[in-house]
């Protein structure tokens, strides 16, 4: 199974958030990981997928809110949910790690909160101290900060190692149960 990194951010993103998302998408794809976004042709969603498509063989998945929304041309697999903002739960639960580039939209804030509630690690890229404090109150051990896309990738790699260790432990436990 390929490691899935959800890159979340606002549709009406700041220039810096778009630059960070584009670089993150590219860095994620260079490691052979899947880029998952909200799939639309705007903001961080489009920028992260655009960055990923700079890498041959990359895979991007877009979890679309409705059939009416325009899919980013950089999305390989659009999944139409007809769930509106309810799709945010799919975004989070499908991702092994959630990275937020910009917290100016309510959709992104809800995705981060849902990720914390689901026990998923969250990386906030260039977040304000107030945003960091708020989300750390919700899930201190799950919320990490990065000052750059490169630092975010380092944090993702650490979370990937934790994920793989948990999978191996679960498999070992199941094997032990079966051999009894």
Question: How does this structure look, described?
Answer:
This protein has 180 residues and is of the alpha/beta class. The chain has a single domain (4-178), classed as 3-Layer(aba) Sandwich (Rossmann fold), CATH 3.40.50.450. The protein contains six helices and seven strands; from the N terminus they run βαβαββαβαβαβα. A seven-stranded parallel β-sheet has the order 4-3-2-1-5-6-7, with helices on both faces.
Number of beta-strand segments: 7
Strand count, sense and barrel status of the largest sheet are: 7 strands, parallel
The end-to-end span amounts to 28 Å
Radius of gyration: 16 Å
Strand adjacency order, main sheet: 4-3-2-1-5-6-7
What fraction, in percent, of the residue positions are helical? 40-55%
CATH fold group: Rossmann fold
Mean residue pLDDT:
92
Beta-strand percentage range: 15-25%
Which secondary-structure class do the elements indicate?
A: alpha/beta
Q: What is the correct CATH architecture?
A: 3-Layer(aba) Sandwich
> Counting H and I runs of at least 4 residues, what is the number of helices?
6
Q: What is the number of independent domains?
A: 1
Q: Order of helices and strands, N to C?
A: EHEHEEHEHEHEH
User: CATH class, please?
Assistant: Alpha Beta
Overall shape: globular
Low-confidence stretches: none
């Amino acid at each position: 199974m390929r490691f899935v990194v959800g890159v979340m951010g606002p549709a009406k993103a700041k220039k810096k958030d778009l630059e960070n998302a584009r670089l993150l998408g590219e860095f994620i794809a260079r490691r052979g990981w899947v880029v998952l976004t909200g799939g639309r042709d705007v903001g961080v969603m489009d920028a992260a997928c655009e960055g990923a498509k700079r890498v041959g063989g990359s895979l991007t998945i877009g979890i679309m809110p409705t059939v009416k929304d325009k899919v980013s041309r950089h999305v390989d697999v659009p999944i139409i949910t007809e769930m509106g903002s309810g799709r945010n739960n799919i975004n989070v639960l499908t991702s092994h790690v959630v990275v937020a580039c910009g917290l100016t939209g309510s959709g992104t804030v809800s995705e981060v909160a849902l990720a914390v509630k689901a026990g998923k690690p969250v990386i906030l890229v260039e977040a304000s101290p107030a945003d960091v404090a708020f989300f750390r109150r919700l899930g201190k051990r799950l919320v990490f900060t990065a000052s750059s896309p490169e630092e975010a990738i380092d944090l993702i790699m650490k979370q990937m190692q934790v994920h793989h260790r948990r999978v191996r432990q679960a498999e070992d436990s199941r094997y032990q149960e079966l051999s009894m």
